[in-house]
Amino acid sequence: MEMKFSPTVLGEEDLRWDSSGLRKFVKEFMSGLISEASTERKMAELNAILYRSSFPSIFGYTGSIWYMISCMAVPPETAASFSARFKPIIPATRTAVLDQQCQWCNRSSFPRKKSRKRIFMVVGNSVRRKKKKKKKKKKKKKKKNTMARTRVREPSRLLAGNTCRIRLSEIFGRATRSILGFFLMMGLCNGVHYLFRPFSQPRISSDTIVGLVVGNFIRKQLDLSTLKTLRYIVDFGMICYMFSLGLEMDPYILFKAPTRDAKVAYAGMISTLVLACSITPFISFSKTKEISFILSLSTVLSSTASPVLTRLITRLKIGKSDIGRLVIAAGMHSDFISTLIICIGYLFCKCQEVRLSTTRGFQLGFVLLIQMIVAAKVSPVFMNWVNNENPEGKPMKGPHLVLAVAFMAFLCSCPTILGYNPILSAFLAGTFLPREGRVSRWAIGKINYLLSTVFYPIFFFWMGAESRWSDFEPGQIMTWVRLILLFVIATVGKVVGTVIAGAILGFHWPESVALGLLLTMKGHFHIYLAIAAKTAGKTTTSTSIGMVIVIFFTIVHAPKVVAHIIKRARKRTPTHRMALQLLDPSSELKILLCIHGLQNTSAAINIMEISRGMAKPGVVVYLTDMIELTDEIAATLVQVEGEDTLTVTHAGVRQMRDQITAVVQSYVDENGDGITLGRMLALSAFNSMAQDICILAEELMGALIILPFHKSQRADGSLSEGNSGFRYVNRKVLRNAPCSVGILVDRGLGTVEKISRSYASLNVAVIFISGKDDREALAYAARVARHPGVKLSVIRFLVDAAAENAARRAGTYRISVAEQEEEMRLDDECFATFYERHVAGGHVAYVEKHLASSAETYSTLKLLEGQYALIIVGRGGKVNTVLTFGMNDWQQCPELGPIGDVLSGSEFSVRTSVLVIQQHNLKGELDGLDDDFSIMEMSRNR
């Protein structure tokens, strides 16, 4: 019987030979019960098994057959007889196998040398070796075989080191492709998210697009084993995700009277459930119309992704408003109830992988009940003990950390022994574990960091790999019908429910519609369920992709809804617009003093000292840390005291803030008469940090924001290149601030150890030319002049009459004559008031400089080099006089204005600090609102 060996013809299912199957084949072969064609097929399968195993490399081809039969516990007599029957078939198959050569080492995959030296006899699972008596034969000359031969060695030695190099290269190649694909996915996700930032889109939107595109493109390069490995990683990541989500839930809300947000959530869920259950049975969303699938799909459509919604509301700065708090709380209610329904429904709905009987369902229910009782009653005792043994501020002890992790893992895995879904089990365990305490915060922080940095790129790549566009069937009408209906059900159902609840609660309908649109948002768990339904055979690939697209569209519209809420709130809520010039000199001054880190602390203390003037009325300083929100820091944000309050647990940030607070508080305690200190934090990405600072200033009703210059001074006195992100923040604050803004260029002010209060020890100058910014600088200088340790000098630059007339004829001014005259009138009035209060009494020195051009202005500024420790100037704004004409063309930092740019340049003194002040622009508007506006309450009063 001639046979051809072709290992690629056989499928994966054909190679799954177990012991019973091989024994049956040997018995049938020996008894002649199977036909010749079946024998050929079976022998081909056996050869394929031998080819893909390492047996031929160990025992030789004939010995491999003996060894395989021995592993199947075939009696020795049967094995010997089977070998005799099988021997005629060996040459044809053996020759084909021997021709399979390794392309790397150029050696045969199987040895050609027959087992003449060793014959393996089989007894049970052991192999005994007998040596044949060597027969002396006459050596014959043989032609040298061009094919390399492999020596038959001891089995133990070959098992350890004779692995096929082709397989090793395949393994390493697959690993390399996986690692490169992971980093490619991370880079693309970050890049697309950066492009989507101007549209205020959450990260899940860009990740979904990248996953659908890249996953489909690279899927062709992946084999089945890689996709299975991805599925295992995704399952583990979802276990962590659901456990973290459960830790943020409060299960005891089920036993409390429904609040306003709970009523909104329940109304939206019920209306969506009713609408989905009424429509989905008539549309083929699943391959089989099962009531369990209809209920599951309806529950998923009625839910809300609370983590995605909370991050979006917080990042768009409406989390402290009443509608923001209502949306976050309603989203958490909806997410918790819908996921709890899925957890309970899993006990009764049949699954393709695990079919549960009624008895098994009750057993699982009992185990889940025990799990929840242990998590709710026993775990607080254990967690409190771990928390007490590891107080805040000290590193957690390793054994306690291991015990805590092991306890949480054990609690999550108990129901899975009986076949319960591990993802849902992790959610239930996390829900009933205590949310408070260091261990819980540590777990949430670490899990969120792991998810954001490692899991999400892999998750969306897996989503794209499973969502094959070739199976989407865009030409079928039902594909688009299913997609549109899913979106309509999810959106209309929520909106109808929230509008009804809003009418009962007294909300205005635009806010109720906005609530419904925001509560339609879906997230990572819903995407996982959409793909899992396809892999379980419940839905087609086309329906699964349609669900993912619907989830994407429930997210992308959310920023526009928030922008509409902000627009309506801005129309109703008055904003506080403050300027130093408009304040009563005897009133308390409120300053939002921002710093980048510990290096700005000394300069900030000296600014606080000179700004307070006399002890009464004093100054209120809100010292604000400007910290960029990175993915690492974002993963450590933990909700502690309610839905809208976040605590930073990042060790580096906490340590830096503690050091700054200790230094400043020490100064206030010793020399802080008249200073009221407050600590604030602007923790945001550079794109939204300016908005945070403006919101803080408006909430605190501050009159002045002082920002540090983005460049810092080196040891040689020059300025570094600085951080471009902080420069962007400074520019944006100048455009949108609700009050006056100052930028401090520290070039030695921080080195002043202590400003005396008994005599003038600090020389300060203010330069006055023209315009509202110079008037604002003069108003701040009036506060500084009251400090007994400050010697203030006012330097006024006046334009020569002849030069001014020439400039008017040449059209140098960019403002009309009427506007120029109005500015001059305001300048004279402001300066006259200042002169009368401070200069006339001799407390402040006064110098006039009559200049004719910007060149003379530059020369005069150079003469001031080294005379003053601090110079206060106005930014200049749109005012362009003869004295600064042309200076804007070559300035390096336009945010400092022409005078400030010269004073902070490398050619000026390295020991003179500069404070550039811009008066509040009454025409400026905030990008958003985050004060505690009550738009819902105003709706109720209408």
TrEMBL record:
Q: Any idea where the Cation/H(+) antiporter central domain is?
A: 619-756
Q: Per UniProt, what is the membrane topology?
A: Multi-pass membrane protein
Spell out the GO cellular component terms annotated for this protein, sorted alphabetically and separated by semicolons. endomembrane system; membrane
Where does the record place the Cation/H(+) antiporter C-terminal domain? 761-921
Q: Which UniProt keywords apply?
A: Ion transport, Membrane, Potassium, Potassium transport, Transmembrane, Transmembrane helix, Transport
GO aspect biological process, one term = potassium ion transport
Cell location: Membrane
Q: Which GO terms describe its molecular function?
A: antiporter activity
Q: What is this protein called?
A: Cation/H(+) antiporter 28
Q: Which organism does this record belong to? A: Cucurbita argyrosperma subsp. sororia
Q: What's the name of its gene? A: CHX28
